[in-house]
Design brief:
By secondary structure, this protein is mostly helical. Helix 2 runs antiparallel to helix 5.
């Protein structure tokens, strides 16, 4: 991933968790004004194939649940854990994690439609069943993948269950994982299984590819990111450097540099030391 990061890292979106929550805010506003309009924004693969291309993106603004105090608290919680992951992993890696989960969900919806088409054929009203299935392809399981990634990265962090009982987040992660496995194997239908699998595929890829450093402490991971940033910053070659104070054009763009004709060698000095230095013989 490092080669891709060097090439595409500059395009990474900072604070992506906040952007996702702002999408929900837009969804809640639409819900209060005209809730039925949200039906034109869901991830409906049948309608996408019939020209409603905007659904590939607008499903992200569909709110995960009705707006109430508990939902607001949960959104703030997901914002905090998402921000923690971005600071620890780096913006690029967090972008890849979230965007891959969203992309897999879109692909999963079309896989479900293809299965329905080839198994049901003309006997099914694909327009109707696709409209129902689009309600399952939401950001719910993507948010769940954020929590699972947080539990895997910060297993010993404590949260207050029901605002009272302190519990390590790894135990909640295991509990949620078992619930997802049960829903996938026993409680869910085909569309539920595909929605779970496609949304959580990014977490499975993360877990497999990050086994070597998944148990690193947040401080260690932060130092690794800062070290890489220092290497990139210090490896930049400057055109001018004062032989006395070491200042370059990066330190002060207004500085002027000159070579001294009386010094034996190519010694360059800033304007502050050009006439005050001791000549090198």
């Amino acid at each position: 991933m490092s080669n891709f990061e060097k090439r595409f890292g500059k395009y990474a979106v900072r604070n992506l968790s906040l952007a996702l929550i702002l999408c929900y805010v837009v969804g809640y506003i639409i819900q209060m004004i005209n809730g039925s309009f949200l039906g034109y924004l869901t991830l409906n693969p049948y309608e996408i194939l019939h020209g409603q291309i905007w659904r590939v993106f607008t499903w992200l603004i569909i709110p995960p649940s009705s707006l109430d105090p508990f939902t607001i608290i949960m959104l703030l919680f997901y914002y905090n854990i998402g921000t923690s992951l971005e600071r620890t992993w780096g913006t690029y890696r967090y972008n890849v994690y979230l965007l891959s989960g969203m992309s897999f969900t879109v692909i999963g919806s079309f896989i479900w439609l293809a299965i329905q088409y080839f198994t049901g054929g003309a006997a099914l009203n694909l327009e109707y069943v696709s409209a129902i299935a689009s309600l399952y392809f939401s950001t719910y399981y993507i948010n769940m993948s954020i929590f699972l990634a947080f539990a895997a990265t910060f297993p010993d962090v404590q949260v207050l269950l029901m605002f009272i009982v302190p519990v390590k987040v790894k135990w909640l992660g295991i509990l949620y994982g078992l619930v997802l496995v049960y829903d996938f194997l026993f409680a869910g239908n085909l569309v539920t299984r595909i929605a779970i699998a496609s949304s959580l595929l990014s977490f499975l890829i993360f877990f497999v590819t990050s086994r070597s450093h998944i148990h690193m402490t947040p401080r260690q991971m932060k130092r690794r990111v800062e070290f890489k940033q220092d290497i990139r910053r210090n490896s930049r070659v400057t055109k001018h450097k004062c032989a006395i104070c070491g200042q370059t054009e990066d330190d002060d763009p207004t500085l002027e540099f000159r070579f001294c004709s009386k010094c034996n060698g190519n010694y360059e000095y800033c304007q502050q030391h050009l006439f005050t230095h001791t000549h090198v013989q």
